[in-house]
Amino acid sequence: MAYTQDEVLAGLAELVNDETGIATENVQLEKSFTDDLDIDSISMMTIVVNAEEKFDVKIPDDEVKNLKTVGDAVTYIVGAQA
Amino acid sequence: MTSIQGTQSRAGSRILSVGAARGDLVVPNDDLVGPIDSSDEWIRQRTGIITRVRASEGIEAVDLAETASREAIERAGLDASQIDAVIVSTISNTVQTPSMAALLTERIGATPAPAFDISAACAGYAYGVAQADALVRSGAADHVLVVGAEKLSEVVDPTDRSISFLLGDGAGAVVVGPSDEPGISRSVWGSDGSQWETIRMTNTLGSMRDGAAWPTLRQDGQSVFRWAVWAMAKVAKRALDEAGVQASDLAAFIPHQANMRIIDEFAKQLKLPDTVAIARDIATTGNTSAASIPLAMHRLLEERPELSGGLALQIGFGAGLVYGAQVVTLP
């Protein structure tokens, strides 16, 4: 069953929290991973790989650089679900 | 008809000893941050590196290789004349041919042992151990010297933010010899040339002939990180399976010292128990490519001699992309 946007956001917020300790309520759609959440490239990749597993999607390396905001990632994951 | 006399094979091989040589200059992060508009904190946070060692001008990779090799041979209780093959892994030798191995073999007094270089970047030491194990077990050689030797400061660009600030200079050497029991597991090694450009040189010899700048190293850090942790964790698990051991049987985990964040995440993926010592030589040595695993092993055994005789999982991975992993009995 496909995850809804809200479910992906909540799941992603948990992954961000696991990796960085950032409170889940601060992981909001408009937030930039680098500028607002201060997530570095290595943590970003860890979150991406964990998101692939959690939501059963593929996020290629070339796509990761396009995921500037939490909303970008949520939209991509929702769209990439089989 | 006269038949060819066969070679007497052996049950096993093992690492008899390890030797190390590090660059003589301690280079703190503050010395490198200017041209990359960075800070000590930025480098520490992303790499775990506090200082890296580099060799002075006039000290070449082969000089470091000689020091490490002499220590390894002495610790094995051998004379150099008993070394009957020399394998050197290097990517920073500025001489295309002849090999560093032939020069090293002459310098340490092991001539006329067969000597050759291999180009397998940060997996080069593990590739060398795979070959040494096969040579010794097959009976083709009795004692093989495997060396990783790099002067990576020859191929750094001070303005590069991708890899240069990670790199250090050093050499590590092991002697592989006969053993009644297997002391080196069947190697899990391979390549993935579809990612040939993930870690690369900026220019070729041909482009230099036509006026291009001196070639330096670059990497796609995020792609390397994903591959080095999650793909390599699978390789490491296969190496444990080949050896027939569990993570809890290990005394030590000695991965290529690429980046502390890779080492930490790698250990997490492997679910290593607290009883397993994890090599973290990168903090003060930096990334020395093919030299990093034997250097890290050497330090671990200096600091914790009680680990000697225990099992270690060693895994190298790098430009190619290439990888190699074995479980070994620590010398």
Structure report:
The complex is a heterodimer of chains A (82) and B (331). Chain A has 82 residues and is mainly α. Helices cover 56% and strands 0% of the residues of chain A. Chain A has helices spanning 5-20, 41-55, 61-64, 70-80. In chain A, helix 1 (5-20) packs across helix 2 (41-55) and helix 1 (5-20) packs across helix 4 (70-80). The N and C termini of chain A lie close together (9 Å). With 331 residues, chain B is an alpha/beta fold. Chain B folds into two domains: 12-179, Thiolase/Chalcone synthase (Peroxisomal Thiolase, Chain A, domain 1, 3-Layer(aba) Sandwich), CATH 3.40.47; 188-329, Thiolase/Chalcone synthase (Peroxisomal Thiolase, Chain A, domain 1, 3-Layer(aba) Sandwich). Chain B contains nine helices and 14 strands. Chain B has helices at residues 40-47, 61-75, 100-108, 124-138, 205-209, 221-243, 260-270, 282-285, 292-303, and strands at 12-22, 25-28, 51-54, 85-89, 115-118, 144-151, 169-179, 188-191, 199-201, 217-219, 252-255, 277-278, 311-318, 322-329. In chain B, the strands form four sheets. Chain B has a five-stranded mixed β-sheet, with helices on both faces. In chain B, strand 11, helix 7 and strand 12 form a beta-alpha-beta unit. In chain B, helix 2 crosses helix 3 (100-108). The longest helix of chain B has 23 residues, at 221-243. The model of chain B has no long low-confidence stretch (mean pLDDT 96). Chains A and B meet through helix 2 of A and helix 6 of B. Chain A: The modification O-(pantetheine 4'-phosphoryl)serine is found at residue 41. Chain A: Pathway: Lipid metabolism; fatty acid biosynthesis. Chain A: It is found in: Cytoplasm. Chain A: This is Acyl carrier protein. Chain A: Pfam families: PP-binding (PF00550).
